[in-house]
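[audit] Reproducing an earlier prediction to check determinism. Same input, same settings, fresh worker. If the C-alpha cells differ from the archived copy the diff job will pick it up downstream; this log only records the rerun itself.
[audit] input (764 residues):
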Amino acid sequence: MRRRTGITTSLLLGCALTLGGIAVVGAHPASAASSWTLAGPSAGGPTATVTLSDSGSLAISAAKGTATVISSSPLGISTSSASFTSGLAFTTRTDRDVTESYTTVTGKQRTRSNTFKETTLAFTKGSAAMNLVVRVSADGIAYRYVLPASGTITVNGESSAWNIPASSPAWLAPTGLDDQGAWNETTAGGAAGGQYSMPALFDVGGTFVQLAESDLSGRYAGSDFDHSSGTGRYSYAPWSGSMSSAGPLSTPWRTAAIGDLKTVTESRLVDDLAPPSKIADTSWIKPGNVAWSWLTDGVDSLSQQEQYIDFAAANGWSAILVDAGFSDSWIPTLVSYGKARNVGIIVWYDSSDLQSQTQRDTILNKVKGWGAVGVKIDYVFDDNQNTMKWYDAILQQTANLHLMVNFHGAQLPKGMQRTWPHVMTAEAVFGAEQKKNNAKFDTILPFTRNSVSSMDFTPVTFSMGSPRNTTDGHELGMSVAFESGWQHYGDNPGSYNAHPDALKLLDRTPTAWDQTILLGGRPAQEAWFARRAGTRWSIGGISALNAKTFSTPLSFLGTGQWFGEVVTDGSGGLVRTAKTYASTDTLSVPIATRGGFASVFCPYTAGMTACPSLTAKPSGSPYVSDLSAQTAANGWGPAEKDLSNGGDQPGDGKALSIGGTAFAKGLGVHAPSTLTYYLGGNCSQFTASVGIDDEVLAPGTVDFQVLGDGKVLADSGTVTKGAAAKAITGALAGVQTLTLKVTDAGDGNAHDHADWGGARLTCA
C-alpha cells in the first residue's frame, strides 16, 4: 500500500516563553479522562474531540458550532515494538498556545500569522509510549503521533482516518504515480472504492472540510486516501508499507481545514503546520511569468528559444522554460542571450538522471555553471520514504546552488513551499498539456489542488482547439483563478500577440500574492478571486455555467481612486474596458457561457490610461509613495501611502509625523514590514527620513533597512519613539529591485508604527 505579528499569547498556566518564534505556554497535566474536547483560539471556530474507548482505542471527531462535520474516526499507529491501536492507558495532558508569524516567497498570502491551541495526550502500552498531539486553529484541526523512544523506530502502518457523512457532496481525484488524476464531483459515500489524491474536499451541510497532510520529509512516507465505496471513511495510506527512522519520531500532520468555502479556500493550514524555511536569504528567489514553447512549438533549436526570449523580454516576463529536447551545446549561448535581455533560463531534467549524489553533482553544478536560474524536474512519481529522502537531498542541494525548482510528474507538495521557498510550483494536475481543457474541471481546481500549493497548469492557451470547451475569457481568467509562483503560460508568441488586450493584462498580472480573497463560486460551477500584490489588485476568474453577469463590491480596494482594466469575452472576441473606480463602487462584468475574465486595478494618477507594467522603470525623481509596490508585507493592516499606518483598514492613518516634523509624502508601515519596487537598474539613489510615527502613544523600537537586490545598502540602527527623524540614504547604481524593510529591532513589534518620511528616488 502504498492577526498581527508579535501578538501576546494568553496563558493557560504559568509564564509564556518564546522559542524560535513559537509562544510556549507552561505545561500542566490534566486528570485522567476518556474524552477531551479541544477548542481553538477564537469563538465559533472548529472543535476537536478525542475519545479513549474501554478497550483503549482512540478516535477523533470534529464539529463546527453545534454540528458534527467529522464523526468518530479511528486513530492509532503500529510499530515493530508496539501497536498503539488498542490497549492504551492515558497518563498526562499538556496544553500550550502556538503562535507563529512567517513570510513566504510564493503563494496566496505571503505574510501569515497563525495561532493554534495545542494539546498533547500521552499514552502508554506496557513499557512503550505514544503521544497524540492535536492542534486546533480558526480554520481547522490537525493531529500527529509522536513516538518518544530513542533508537530506530519502524512504523508498519496507521489506523488514521476521517469519517465524513456519506451523503456529503465531494470533489475527489483518483491517485496515480504522477498525481494527474481528473477531479470528479461525487459524494463521500458514492465515490468508487480505491485510492484518492490530496486534498479531498467535502460539503457537510454547508460546512466545507478539506483533508490533507503536512510536514513531510525523509523520516516518513507521504500518503494517499484509501476509500471503501458506500462509506464516508477516508483512511491515510502511506506510500511505504514500512518506514524506519531515528527516534524520537513525529509523524506528518493529518489535517482538516473546516469552515465555509471562503475560509477553506483561503486557508493556509497546510503551510502553517509545515516546518519553517530552511533558507535564510531568499532574495535570489524570483516568482514571475515564464514563456514556454513545448506545448505548442516543442523545443528544436537555439534560434527558436531565442525568439521566446525576445518575446519574454518585450513583455517583461522573468524567464523561459527550455523543456525536453534541448542540447547542452547551445544552452550557454542561450543563457548569455537571456542575461543580456534580463530573461532567466529554466532547464528541464528527468529525475532518473538526478538520483545519486554523483549524478546531482554533475548535472546541477553544470546548470549552475551555465548561469541558469532554475530546473524543472520531471517523472518523480511516488511519495514513498526513499523518494522523500531524495527530496530532502535535492532540495538542499538546489538551495545551496541558488537554483529555483519546478517538480513535474510528482505528487502534490504539502507545505514544501514554506520549508523550501525556492520551490516555485509543481504539476500534480491534469493540466493544459493534456489538451482537453474543460470548464467544469477547471473550476474544481482552485478549491482543491491549487488551494494547497502552487499549481503548474500551464494556463491561457488560446490556440488550443477541440475538445477544449472554454472561451478565451475563461482561458484568460485562469491567470487570476490559478496560483503559481512561476506561471508558465502555455501558448506561443504568435497566439499571444494576436490577443493584444489579453497579453497586456498578463504582463501586468503578478504571480505571487500578499492577499487572496474568494469573491464567490462553487467547485464545478465557477471560481472568482481578488488577489493583491503590493498596491495592485487582480480580479477575475472562470465559469462553467451559462452566460451571466458577475458582480462584486470593491470595498476591499481601500480609499482613493483606482484605475481598472477589464478583459472579458465579447461578441467578436476579447474586449477591454477601462475606467476609474472607487471602493464604494460595484464591479459588474458580463460572462459568456463557460467564460471568464481577468482585470487589473491600480491606484489612479491623473491622465492614466493603463496600469503600469510590472517592469516599468521609474524615471526622474519620483516619491516612492507614487509608485506601485511589487510586494507589500506589513505587520499590522496595510502599508499606507502618504499616511501613517493607522489601524487595520486601508486609508485609516493620519498625516505622517516623526519627532514633531510633518511629511506630506512617504510610507506608513508597521514592523515587520517589507516593500519591494522594481527599478530595472534605472536609479542611482534612495533618500528618506525615518522614525516612529508620533501617533504612537507607547514606546516602540524599530530598525530601517534599505536593500538592493537582497544586499543591505543602508541600516538606520535602532530607532525609538520620540526621536527626531533620521536621514537614510542608499546608493542604487545597477539595482534591479529595491526593498524597504522595517524590523522590530528584536524586542517584539508592539507600537512599531514606522514612517519612511519623504522617501524618494533619483533616477535617469
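[audit] rerun output stored. Observation attached for the diff report: The CA atoms of residues 354 and 363 lie 7 Å apart.
[audit] end
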